[in-house]
Fold this protein.
Amino acid sequence: MLTIYGRRNSFNVQKVLWLVDELGLDHAHVPLGGAFGGLDDPQFRSRNPHGRIPVIEDEGVTVWESHAILRYLAARYGGERFFPADPAARSYPDRWMDWAQTSLQPTFVDGVFVAYYRTPEEKRDWPAIRAAIARCASHYSFLDQWLAGRPYVAGDDLTLADIPAGTTLYRYFELDIERPALPNVEAWYARLQERPAYRQHVMVPFADLKG
């Protein structure tokens, strides 16, 4: 059976749980990290020497790094539904996953969510936080322009292109921060909220993470 290691309120674990549910895969979930600890356990380190989550085990195959896990699961279990075989079509999920990982996620997760929400008020670096909020606005505005006339990032259907950026939306729209007008992103977010897997695995309350 597929086993997923990592706590449910981890942003990167949520990506994997969302896809697994979309694929309808039976799985076991082992909470690790944060309040659950266990990341320095030798047995876990044998699965991922970096000591980070998520990690999956699947019939003798161990995979770590959230986007590598997404690609593996989609390729093994999803046919071409989430990750097309054609190189040109596949480039859309690839480019948007890489963009989310290198541009959007560091700015939002590290620069805003951790630096603002997870940091006690007296320790917040407000100039850095405001700069990160502004960069987030730029990233989401770029995505908003791309989504004009598209129900999902790569076209008419949900693919891996939607998952990394889509996982940020619940926290982005729940935080008490300034946001630009994003009609296309908001429409996309509304479509994602109609998906049971998204509601269950991404729209997870995060008050316990507040600094």
User: Anything to note?
Assistant: The chain has a mean pLDDT of 97. DSSP finds eight helices and four strands in the chain. Helices lie at 11-23, 42-47, 66-77, 87-117, 126-146, 163-174, 183-193, 196-201. The radius of gyration is 17 Å.
